[in-house]
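Pair request: fold both.
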Amino acid sequence: MITKQLIKTATIILTALMLAGLVALPGGAQSGTRSPGPPDPLPVSISCPAAPGGESASALAGRCPRPIITHVLARGSPLHGSNGVYFGPDNLLYIASFISGDILVMNPNSGRILRRITPLPEMNGPDDLTFGPDGALYWTSISTGKVGKLAPDGTQSLVAQLPPGANPITFSQDGRLFVGLDFLGDALYEVYQDGTPPRLIRENLGTHPAAERLLIAS
């Protein structure tokens, strides 16, 4: 009966915390007007080791002398190696996650990851991103130097091939696209979408931060 009593006690405590607004309700709903908590309560599991005779844990339910209670103390982050962030036309936050190779779309109000955009293999490893005047998403791959594009209709295409180190990317107010090299390179390019080779604006910029290079270009 120990297992049943522990489950009952955990349920009572969790219900009290929900009513107090200290723990998020399932699905992210929130009681009252308190600040949002975690999307879901951290799970607690109770199990019982199998008996020496091979009896399963489920068969021992309610008469396990030493139940194993497992508490999840903290969730791992769904973001791995995230770098560039940019708000899209849909007011969602787009996050370039270099290590996982994805672009994550987050609801900035709830913190929930709504979907993942996986670049094509030849354009993977997104490091920075931006949106263009055409509503398309553009990103750089720092390891390969490629500039990728995701059109509003979901089509992916390669915009340009730059040397390794392609990192910061932005559009100027008149719609021109600029990409800077950092860490693996040291240069600033203007990138065209009509097949014209990228134009080298300047190299050997020294230790200027990448953002400053793009401010100079813009």
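--- second member of the pair ---
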Amino acid sequence: MLITFSSSTTSGIGLETSLLFATEGSSLILADINLEAAERTASLIENKFEGKIKAFAVKCDVSKEDQIEAIVKRAVDEFGRLDVMVSRRDDKRRTPFNRLNQWFSSVRPTVQQCRDHAPC
């Protein structure tokens, strides 16, 4: 069984990615800035898979390294490990080429946590 952290899981690609991981038997930590929406996703997954898949929601701004680090710690405390990190930041605004550094600074904390906690 995999343990997966996934962000922006409340609709679209993020929701479908979470459902796919659940279909494959992964337990899920569902992170979103909108906790109520993430809780709905967790309930949807637990109901769809009749409680065989554990899913819990956490409020998280993926641009904040301390929040991601706390989630990684919770995953390790709860499951003993974290196998997969899916960071799908849902930013409906288009980022102009001259502002890519600003965009990257918002995803850098997740990239750093992947680097720091990868089991390789």
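Observation on the second member. Residues 100-117 form the longest helix (18 residues).
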